Amino acid sequence: QSVLTQPPSASGTPGQRVTISCSGSSSNIGSNTVNWYQQLPGTAPKLLIYSNNQRPSGVPDRFSGSKSGTSASLAISGLQSEDEADYYCAAWDDSLNGLFGGGTKLTVL
Amino acid sequence: QVQLQESGPGLVKPSQTLSLTCTVSGGSISSGSYYWSWIRQPAGKGLEWIGRIYTSGSTNYNPSLKSRVTISVDTSKNQFSLKLSSVTAADTAVYYCARDVVINWYFDLWGRGTLVTVSS
Q1: What parts of chain A have a pLDDT lower than 70?
Q2: Cβ of B33 under 8 Å from any chain A Cβ?
């Protein structure tokens, strides 16, 4: 069981807005930044959001991140079929350990 | 552009040591802005951070694996390596190497991953 808690699944229809939550504690999300990764089937993860809300070059602005206290969220607006993937949150822990959430499988209906 | 490529045996016997190498191409591993990390993913499961190394040799390891993990770097070959000892079937996974940005701990570049199966 992961220290960072994500819902195992999420879904939406094309064009909808979907959010994925990530809950941690004061020693990880509460005191460090949160990053999000997208993993398409059969591929390596790809950085989607870093430092809570920053998008790497090439990531559409449909993807946004936020953090409040010991929780974070990834929002995807204007959902598209190619967004169907697994999404992972991640944060450094003050115990000098890197943590990933358990992952959320996003289905586009 | 910078690319990462994992290499090593795809099959390891139980109780033996898993050894993988990540080769960095298109840039220097000695860039001061990055750590170099290993991450693994069992089939159908989530990601697990194994550990990381800075080119000075400084390391951090996942406490749950620390007693069995060694990560090393060879700057002359632009490579870093993972050794995981006393493996069991639970260590069967796709192993990724990744570039780890020093500030704010995130992986901006990943290798394609390599499957390591632990079986006799």
Answers
A1: none
A2: no
